[in-house]
Amino acid sequence: MIKKYCVILLFSLWAIYGRSQETQTTQKVEQQMEDLTEANESETEDDSYIQQLLFLRRSPLNLNTASESDLTVFKNLSALQIQQFLKYRQVLGKLLSFYELQAVPGWDVETIKYIQPYAYVGPAESVAESFFSRFRGGFNTILMRHSQVLEKQRGFIPDAEGKTKYLGNNHRYLFRYKYQFKNLLQFGLVGDKDAGEQFFKGAQKNGFDFYSFHLFARNLGNVKRLALGDFTVNMGQGLLTFQSLAFRKSADVTNVKRQTEIFRPYNSAGEFNFHRGIATTVQAGIFHVSAFASYKKASASTTIADTAENFEDYFSSVLTSGYHRTETEAGNRNTITQTTFGGNVQYKKNNLQIGINAIRYHLSMPMVKSDAPYNMFAASGKSLGGYSLDYGYTRKNVHFFGEAAMDLNNNMAHVHGLIASLHRLVDFSAVYRNISPKYNSLYANAFTESTQPKNERGLYTGLSFKPSYTWRIDAYADVFTFPWLRYRVDRPSKGAEYLLQVNWRPNRQFEMYTRFRRESKAINLSNTPDPFKITDNIPRVNWRTQFTYKLSPAVQLRSRAEFVWYNTGNPALAEKGTTIYADLIYKPPMSAFTCNARFQFFQTDGYNSRVYAYENDVLYSFSIPALYGTGTRAYVNINYDLTKNLTMWFRIARTMYNNQQTIGSGYDIIYGNHKTDFRIQMQYTF
């Protein structure tokens, strides 16, 4: 016990030097969001992770009573770090101080500082066992947000008859009410209307285009989770289904395992990636049994059957954008229904966890993809689903994990990996995947190169080296093959991706990182018919350097320069891109007023050399636009606490293009060289 108090004293001295509490998502998570957006070529509307973190700032997690599932909310904690913490607490007992965490194997100063604003160490507290008693003493929040593109877009310009292609106005509205009592109970309602959609008229006489309701409770005796309304389902390593936010390859090389609760409440504005119904998890000794049932409607592009041929109506794809602005989009709204059943049985004891998963989808009409060659093994029919077995096992300083899955047609998919602490300064990770071209699963999201786990074999290895407190070096290599054709790749192909990032933080005021990444994947180079189509591996290289400097407790400066080279092996098709930006962040301690601003220059030869940059936004929101062409972009965010309970946010952002007379495509075209986004938000907490 004396040794334990000595350890705490030494680490408390470190805390005087190293304490730092950030109100924004950490730099590492920002990088992960940028990488995810670039890989998917689209931004996510899932803000649940930001909601979780900001709630934990108000109601921190007690590390002495936190379970494994509680700790998975911290995306920067690897599976091995979580297991090492639980083992430390099991062997040495409850923590006496927060700074004792540095004695946990695999936990460094950076990790501890990341979770410091969201957790504390204290005695175990009694919790409200009665379900109804949890409806008192929690936090209520009402959030309202208005967004608008100030320039007139083509879809809102009347034609000769005075009609517009978009049925509604150019305002976007978001409403969200949520009640939360610790992590034991939450419920809420979300309403969302996109720009161009009708509001309290036409097809939307009930107001918002999208409504979402959820009620989620934990720890009701043997009932560990109970979900009603909208929720997400997350099984294993994402081969069957994983609907919560999950990152892909990034400089956080040990964050390669999918880990979160099997059921999570859903209260974001996205209209696709969730289930609607009932779900529950019951504990019986060392077993956890989970089951859910869901019924919801979805938008799809449908084709009416040719009755002369006696064919059945079918659809070619589910529409995930959530837009119902034109007559065509409104006609596709809620055209199919999806009924889903599934469950999980999990065995967990000591260092071993094994789960058996099953899921089954039934669609109201069959899915039939186009007859393109790359769609030969695409999902089809009314019934989809599969089964899987996932595992996790910790042996000393190594954590093994994986999942083996099989769809209803007996096609196989495998993901297996490990995270190891080779030395107190060195961490290692590896992920192997082997997924049949014939394998299909809806809502799947595994650690793969492709967006969907399908038609892929590959090996990822990552290494993190921390030679001192001021330096950190992260690197990964990923090599992969695609045994069958892919979209815009009409031959079996292969590729590789490499990353090296060096972080330097000599003191609390200054931090810098530089990153080099190279990716090479195949793509068709011509539109000639098969078998004469030419396919080649195209390299894309990024080099980025970013600085952050705290000028004072209230003022922070940040700057980035990034360069992109695309297809350097072919001078005729080669592209180059550049972006430079500077940020000013003003946040006085204990002040009701904060603001941040950015000015950015970008110049690229085309879309293939586009650049991405995470942008701060109003609370629970963020932007990661893809910028290409030549121009500048600037934004200003202002946050002001009108009262203790009422807060306002304002944001305005403008992109100016050089030598360009139109922006966008389709009905979103702006006739001009600039685009301005305006956003205002209010939140009332009581």
Please tell me about this protein's structure:
With 686 residues, the protein is mainly beta. Among the domains are: 1-123, no CATH class; 551-686, no CATH class. The strands form 6 sheets. It has a 24-stranded antiparallel β-barrel. A two-stranded parallel ribbon has the order 1-2. It starts with a helix and ends with a strand. The model is unreliable at 1-25 (pLDDT under 50). This is Helix-hairpin-helix domain-containing protein.
- Class from secondary-structure proportions: mainly beta
Spatial separation of the terminal alpha carbons? 43 Å
Q: Major sheet, described briefly?
A: 24 strands, antiparallel, barrel
Alpha plus pi helix count: 7
Question: Any idea what the shape is?
Answer: globular
Mean pLDDT: 90
Strand segment tally? 35
Proportion of β residues?
A: over 45%
Helix residue percentage: 10-25%
**Radius of gyration, in angstroms, nearest whole number:** 25 Å
Unreliable spans are: 1-25
What oligomeric assembly is this protein in?
Answer: single chain
